[in-house]
Amino acid sequence: MSVLVLVEHTEGDIKKKSFEAVQYAAEIAKADGSGVAALVLGALSEDAISALGEYGAQKVLQVSDARLNDLHARAYTTAILTAAQKEGSKVIIMMHDVNGRAVAPRVAVKLNAGLVSGALSLPDKAKGFTIKKAVFSGKAFAYVNVTSDVKVITLMPNTFQLSKADGKATIEQLQVSFGPKDFGVTVKEVNKVKGEVLLAEAELVVSGGRGLKGPENWGLIEDLAKELGAATACSRPVADAHWRPHHEHVGQTGGTIRPNLYIAVGISGAIQHLAGVNGSKTIVVINKDPEAPFFKAGNYGVVGDALEILPRLTAAVKKF
Ligand code: FAD
């Protein structure tokens, strides 16, 4: 019996958040005395796959069908069900992202399993199988006890610190019989954002709001981000005004991120914005209004004009 984990990869590399999922699964398996089987869908080299062993996977099941390099929710579901049956898995883990959110509910329905979406903790076995998760856009936490025989969990990215250990996983090819409707969507073109740190996985994020006054000042955000090796993000009105692309918009209606450091520049701190960023480990707020609500959510604050502070901050970072 194994805890089963769906692994995501892009451009030949496993995504960092999938290592987090494997490590999380390993903790659950340790408590159960079981093992971890990682499921890799699509074409991926043995070299890339072997890293999964260092985070606690004993076994990797690979379905080497190149069509699975792109998300096909039905085909992913079929593959996961096949792997879960083979492994006798009672716990199935995915990341809480586009893929996990599309696939986990389908898997849960098929297996009559309880689903915890956006888990923030390991299951507390002393209280059954109780997991902490955020609700009401991060304003509160719920502790849900999963009582079904099979359990499906999507894990919030950046919830646990990664730590490598010695470990080796065996790799097995898994044969899956896909149904005629499993590949109902054809991906014709993928436009990738190049040369930037991926926002969803970034440890450091510099984010701007309407306080930046206009797109002509965005170089100040980009300069600081570049010096820090950070991703850039923005508030919704900034994306709505086309100062920045929509994939950078974070909040209730945008992305949810949990970086180690979130620097909010010229952003008021409306609850809809905080919903997407209040899981950040450290928040630094730069705002000219000392009454801006963001200061209440921040760990550190600078009151002043962002257009003056940003160049000075970037110059200071350059010195290190
Ligand atoms: P503003 O509210 O205009 O704030 C600008 C801030 O910049 C102010 O605090 C000001 O003091 C400061 N400032 C101005 N000049 C300077 C300067 N020179 N230097 C430093 N600081 C300066 N918003 C999101 O961000 N994400 C969402 O997902 C989202 N979803 C929403 C969903 C719904 C249903 C609704 C109703 C709203 C949503 N919003 C969302 C909008 C949200 O309510 C706020 O309106 C928005 O976050 C405000 O963006 P802002 O802070 O950039 O702009």
TrEMBL record:
Keywords: Electron transport, FAD, Flavoprotein, Transport. InterPro entries: DHS-like_NAD/FAD-binding_dom (IPR029035), ETF_a/b_N (IPR014730), ETF_a/FixB (IPR001308), ETF_asu_C (IPR014731), Rossmann-like_a/b/a_fold (IPR014729). Binds 1 FAD per dimer. It holds the Pfam family ETF. The keyword Transmembrane helix does not apply. The keyword RNA-binding does not apply. Its cofactor is FAD. Residues 3-187 form the Electron transfer flavoprotein alpha/beta-subunit N-terminal domain. Transmembrane segments: none annotated. One of its GO terms (molecular function) is flavin adenine dinucleotide binding. GO terms for biological process: fatty acid beta-oxidation using acyl-CoA dehydrogenase. Belongs to the ETF alpha-subunit/FixB family. This is Electron transfer flavoprotein subunit alpha/FixB family protein. It comes from Mucilaginibacter myungsuensis.
